């Protein structure tokens, strides 16, 4: 988590329950197809920027910086809706995705299927 | 994270990138509707139990114990598919959901919509 001051609405901030590293999980679902594209992380300021710009903005755990999706790749996410879950530790973004959501070039990041033995 | 020994396939365990509290995020999507129902957390043993029983099993961060979804409520999740994402820190479960997914009684946990100012 950044030490940057945040301008997130305090009423929203009070409803967030962050992990021990100060983040909430952000699930990204594509409008239209319903495909779950990716999971990213937000601190309060990333959520503030997302809500006020309509462009999905995350906190990169690996790079330690804010990250506007598509700023490098052009694969933007236009945010239609943001919903918080019942216990405040996850967000669901509904987006219009330009191009591939995954940095590997695939439509979604969830391409590695694991074997379910009993079904 | 529990200190319990896990029997998760080491080849799968090696692909997981856990948060600082030893967990991976598990997104739960309903088969058929495509609705994102909830987000829960798994350690290696929870994933092992899910893959080998076909019943969604999580690690409860608040209670510090394993949790078979529906064991108390009857609202089971029959797991059809499990996919790992490209960087190993999130799972996507495709499930058949019995009853309400959310402990509050609603179909999904994502009922608290936040205002997106620019769209």
UniProtKB/TrEMBL annotation, chains A, B:
- Output one GO BP term: L-histidine biosynthetic process
| Catalyzed chemical reaction(s) | 1-(5-phospho-beta-D-ribosyl)-5'-AMP + H2O = 1-(5-phospho-beta-D-ribosyl)-5-[(5-phospho-beta-D-ribosylamino)methylideneamino]imidazole-4-carboxamide; 1-(5-phospho-beta-D-ribosyl)-ATP + H2O = 1-(5-phospho-beta-D-ribosyl)-5'-AMP + diphosphate + H(+)
Pathway assigned to this chain's UniProt record = Amino-acid biosynthesis; L-histidine biosynthesis; L-histidine from 5-phospho-alpha-D-ribose 1-diphosphate: step 2/9; Amino-acid biosynthesis; L-histidine biosynthesis; L-histidine from 5-phospho-alpha-D-ribose 1-diphosphate: step 3/9
The protein's superkingdom reads Bacteria
> Its function?
Catalyzes the hydrolysis of the adenine ring of phosphoribosyl-AMP.
Instruction: Say which family it is in.
Output: In the C-terminal section; belongs to the PRA-PH family.
Put simply, this protein is called Phosphoribosyl-AMP cyclohydrolase
């Amino acid at each position: 988590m950044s030490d940057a001051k945040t301008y997130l609405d305090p009423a929203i901030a009070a409803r967030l329950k962050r992990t021990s590293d100060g983040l909430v999980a952000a699930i990204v679902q594509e409008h239209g197809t319903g495909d779950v594209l990716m999971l990213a992380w937000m601190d309060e300021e990333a959520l503030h920027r997302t809500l006020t710009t309509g462009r999905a903005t995350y906190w990169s755990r690996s790079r330690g910086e804010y990250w506007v999706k598509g700023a490098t790749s052009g694969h933007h996410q236009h945010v239609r809706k943001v919903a918080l879950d019942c216990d405040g530790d996850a967000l669901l973004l509904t987006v219009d995705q330009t191009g591939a959501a995954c940095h590997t070039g695939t439509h979604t990041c969830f391409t590695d299927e694991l074997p379910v033995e009993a079904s």
